[in-house]
Amino acid sequence: MAVGRSGVVAALDIGTTKVSCFIARIDGRGMIRVGGVGHHEAKGLRAGAIIDIDAAEEAIRAAVDSAERLANETIDEVIVSFSGGYPASHTVGIEIGVHGRQVTDLDVNRVLAEARAHVEPGDNEVVHAIPVGFTLDGTNGIKDPRSMHGSRLGVNLHVVTAATGVLRNLDTCIERGHLSIQRRVLSSYAAGLACLVEDEMELGVTVIDMGGGTTTIAVFAGGQLVFADGIPVGGNHVTNDIARGLSTPRSHAERMKTLYGSALPSPTDEKDIMEVPLIGEEDAANATHVPRSALTGIIQPRVEETLELARDKLEAGGAVARAGQRVVLTGGASQLQGMRELAARILDKQVRIGRPIRISGLAEATAGPGFSACAGLLLYAARNPQEAIATDLPGDMGNRFARIGRWFKENF
């Protein structure tokens, strides 16, 4: 596989609760060396969408500045992940005539251009356009049709879209920080690149990236992203449920969730008593005391709902068969105790927690599930040339299909 990019690369993961930035140097062999890491509490976002552009810009600047200082680099462009904007996907299939001769680069360019012409995103914007397989005279599963003979050349183009307004607001926020955007990548897609092993990608696997305000889904099969979707529910909803249910400040609700929370009950829950400060009460003597079972009773229904919504998205999108029997949970909200076991029960699949295993040298604090998407952006830049033919950002339309031929020459 050819290297997609070399030199200094900056990855920016903008989540509802955390903004992360990794700056790495990629050598000519595609080896990644992370030199700087920065992260900051996200502000001004809800469900992955900007609601306060000034606050969001400040958080992005803080994360980027921290990474720049550690890396001793100054960056001016980033690869950015997104999770908001209600991402959705569909596949476009198209065929053209090649008159029984050998397939050329021009034919590949032409069939891809024809497929793109049939994409109808409506009010949304195309973010990914991935060829997931070519056909030649009805024969499926061809990765590179060049030099093969046939009469009808076809392609299945997997298209991922998201709400234009959400994406443009994100662009504006980043550009106000004097950064240009090289590419946007769906967070669950990026997380999958960091967390999955090759066999999982080939045989079929579902990645569920559980963030603070959103949960995004990506299905990989045959080594490619074949389905994507998203749900505007995440870990913040669990925190809010705890705050409301126990009448405690959100900061303490988050602390309780992190330290004592579980998605599944345990036999000792009734015996474990927790002190819960009440909203507006300054005197600690007025705090209430509740068993841990009360906390679990609030958390479990919300987590079950999130996983059931993810299951429904897979079923509605016809992705269950391609998704195989494996699920990888990642993202900060996936770290909740009991999450893996509850997901296995609801999704009826083998489940593991995913961490960025494909990038070595990360510090322990940044090598957990919460940083999978950011790490995956670096891998996207270095080792995922299939996305070299994805939709370009506005203003970079002219040479898109000219690059397709170069991509094939570099990779096959």
CATH superfamily of the domain at 198-356: ATPase, nucleotide binding domain
Number of strands: 18
The radius of gyration is 22 Å
Distance between the termini: 8 Å
Q: Count of helical segments?
A: 11
**What would the CATH topology of the domain at 198-356 be?**
Nucleotidyltransferase, domain 5
Topology as a string of helices (H) and strands (E): EEEEEHEEHEEEHEHHEEEHHEEHEHEHH
Outline the biggest β-sheet.
Answer: 5 strands, mixed
- State the strand order across the main sheet: 3-2-1-6-11
Indicate the structural class: alpha+beta
Annotate the secondary structure layout:
Layout: E1 7-14, E2 18-26, E3 32-41, E4 45-46, E5 49-50, H1 53-71, E6 77-82, E7 88-97, H2 105-117, E8 124-136, E9 139-142, E10 152-163, H3 164-176, E11 180-186, H4 187-195, H5 198-203, E12 205-210, E13 215-221, E14 224-231, H6 235-246, H7 250-260, E15 273-276, E16 288-291, H8 292-316, E17 326-330, H9 339-347, E18 350-353, H10 372-383, H11 400-411
Parallel strand pairs: 1-6, 6-11, 12-17, 17-18
Antiparallel strand pairs: 1-2, 2-3, 4-5, 7-10, 8-9, 8-10, 12-13, 13-14, 15-16
